[in-house]
Amino acid sequence: MNTTVATAAPAAPGEPAVLDLTAWTCPAPLRDQPRVVMGHGGGGALSAELVQHVFAPGYGGDVLAQLTDSAVVSLGGARLAFSTDSYVVRPLFFPGGSIGDLAVNGTVNDLAMSGARAAYLSCGFILEEGVEVSVVARVANALGAAARAAGVEVATGDTKVVDAGHGDGIFINTAGIGLVPAGVDLRPQRVVPGDVVIVSGSIGAHGVAIMSVREGLEFGVEIESDCAALGGLVETMLAVTPDLHVLRDPTRGGLAAALNEIATASGTGVVLQERDIPVPPAVANACAVLGLDPMYVANEGKLVAFVPREHAEAVLESMRAHPLGAEAAVIGEAVEAHPGMVVARTGLGGTRVVDLPIGEQLPRIC
């Protein structure tokens, strides 16, 4: 159990001891879980602990230790980005997409965050006994259409069937590979104080769209997922300069989780201007009703970039000229202060800590 501790600095005889406030430690929530809970898949602190204490020690290896969206490896003289992801979203179809679209776009986007254009995907379907073949065909067709739109080919696949009651209709795993262009080096360790933080558009639509369909909620207007492949947008940004420092797609855990991961890995602080973060009015209203913070809600067609200040204006202009970056906005900067911490300056002039979420506000969103 963690406790708050303060040490006293030595004092002259007869004088009171002086508390050393820099040595204080604050209690943290107890998260000792003997069994897996839904939060372990939410992209927050529980997910990070599972990776750090279970998977990373079990697998080993220097490449995995980078813990980026996709691994960059050298093979035959080429630099390849390699990524895999599994999709368990419920429902299978939602406004703006389906599990098939997610399975393609999610993996394509993970590769794009390393600067790579996806070339080939593998696709594994896990089907629950009893699911209608017409539903499987609908998902497969959506997956194929998304792959063609993203300019990537499904080169290999696998199918397994589990007993009725031991699945949830359809689960999908995709893995992808792509080439990383020469001179491109995207990783959080390259972030330095002064970097400008840019988000490619409004946040929170995907998570709210999933929840509205799953729970049968109506907000006066249909909210559609932002599910999209970001490879073309990233190519547009790299055409301005290959010297982008890091890209991240804020999926599970939302923008808050992505920024906290970058701040921790880079050892810099991040200061956001909360009023500059684009949130659609419908999403903002839905989150207000449900007590959610849009910064923690998942996205499936947005990216956040840390860009050297001298290139920020040109990169932002190029993003706004692309259909998937029309709403791009500068939302903050990397700073020397409070390393590893993300804070937001509110519209009222205050400052709040934007912490890493424990789990996920909305489970099963990807």
Automatic annotation (TrEMBL):
Organism name: Streptomyces sp. 900116325
Family the entry assigns: Belongs to the HypE family.
Pfam families: AIRS (PF00586), AIRS_C (PF02769)
InterPro entries in UniProt: HypE (IPR011854), PurM-like_C_dom (IPR010918), PurM-like_C_sf (IPR036676), PurM-like_N (IPR016188), PurM-like_N_sf (IPR036921)
Residue span, PurM-like C-terminal domain: 193-338
PurM-like N-terminal domain sequence ranges: 69-180
Protein's recorded name: Hydrogenase expression/formation protein HypE
SUPFAM superfamilies documented for this protein: PurM C-terminal domain-like, PurM N-terminal domain-like
